[in-house]
Amino acid sequence: MTVVATVHGKVRGTTEDGIAVFRGVPYAAAPVGPHRFRPPAPVMPWDGIREATAFGPTAPKNPYAPPMDALLPDPDIPGDDCLNLNVWTPAPGGGPLPVMVWIHGGSLRNGSSCLSVYDGKAFARDGVVLVSLNYRLGIEGFGVFPDAPANLGLRDQLAALSWVQENIHAFGGDPANVTVFGESAGAVSVAALLTSPHAEGFFRRAVVQSGAPTAVAPAKARRVTAAIARRLGVPATAEAFGGVDRAELLAAQAAVAGGNPLTGRTGFHLVVDGDVLPQHPGTALAAGAADGIDLLLGGNTEEYRLWFVPGGLVDQVSAFALRVAMLKFRVPWRAARVYRAGRPGASPGEILGAIATDLLLRIPVNRLADARVGRPGPAFVYEFAWPSPVQRLGACHGLELGFVFDTLDAPDTRALTGSDAPQDLASAMHAAWVSFAATGSPGWTEWNAERPVMTFGAEGAAVVRAPREEERRVWR
């Protein structure tokens, strides 16, 4: 057992394979009672030693619906103190070591830090203090009300990063060398944090995995709040929602909000609120909002397969449906021809999926990297291309996680990768993330006019210059 003193009180963790692990440490007060639908409040200090040996409560959420529930485990740990974090460190009281802070994905309505795929032991083994956190989800984290601040879940993340600045030295971490990283909705959050004035000084590096800088106007985000209010039969205010039983609120949310980034339906979004997000993150980043912050960003070759394949959508899309979708999203007519030329024998569903992947993820990443050329702070771009043998998932969304964390043996990882994923590739990808956190370079050339992309694929890891350039040029 290891005891560390935080600014709020002492916590006792466990020692696992020589790594000190602290789980369920509160970084803000429980968001219940007067704190519900309010910004995160400070933790009340405690006397004595607080046990930090088990993961803390997860944020209230609905489970994934079939068939996604079999591929994306999402444990539910009951309790009110869901604003908690976990720390893995090889040197409590020592250091100072580089710090990485993980923000999980899940469309802003699912996920938590307790998944086995996110185990931080390998990072600590390699000299990094790893922090993972929970934040409010769904309507409680990203509802938009006239009587409450927006972006409460993002404010939670800011509170956790503030906790890191105040406390991580006690765990052997260097508060001046923090890398924030996230995937999917976590990557969207990281992109937003890069532009938030409230995050200034909280980190010097950032990793954006399979997510693009995005946010919407309050009026658009308010639609999901209004729809849930109609379902509940209450006013669309934080005061009214605060009086609704949580189970009833989650049931109404499930009936209204669903879908995914590629197939649509009503969902939750970050909001340009004039406070934590003064402007759209993409606009702010292009204008230099994060100049001086080292960036590592990229995605997976076939992101779309996680959403198109398990339910059979990839086989249901006809040539006509492809044309309709292209009209709806104002995709250039020649795009289908260009994408088909690079994918002989691909079905209309596969063509649509490839276009959607690029439109929503790869092209914004390329544009963000382009904006950094010649400006302070390098950008490094990667692509994860190893194809999973599970359910024709290929190099789908989320597949890289077990490689980044070097947790291929974790049950949550194997749900996507199967049992024979290449350890050599995981070792290479994990080492790149560790190197980036420690030095600012993952081990390959920063983004430039030659467009170098470190590709982690079936043949190993190698730099590819300007991959699929003909397809990228469609979007110029």
Question: Could you characterize what this model shows?
Answer:
The chain has one domain (2-473): Alpha/Beta hydrolase fold, catalytic domain (Rossmann fold), CATH 3.40.50.1820. Helix content is 34%, strand content 17%. It contains 18 helices and 13 strands. Strands 1, 2, 3, 4, 5, 6, 7, 8, 9, 10, 11, 12 and 13 form a 13-stranded mixed beta sheet that branches.
Task: List the SSEs and their pairings.
Blueprint: E1 2-5, E2 10-16, E3 19-26, E4 49-51, H1 68-71, E5 84-89, E6 97-103, H2 121-125, E7 129-133, H3 138-142, H4 152-167, E8 173-183, H5 185-195, E9 205-209, H6 218-232, H7 238-242, H8 246-256, H9 281-286, E10 294-300, H10 305-308, H11 313-316, H12 319-328, H13 334-341, H14 348-372, E11 379-384, H15 401-404, H16 411-417, H17 423-439, E12 452-457, E13 460-465, H18 469-473
Parallel strand pairs: 2-4, 6-7, 6-8, 8-9, 9-10, 10-11, 11-12
Antiparallel strand pairs: 1-2, 2-3, 3-5, 5-7, 12-13
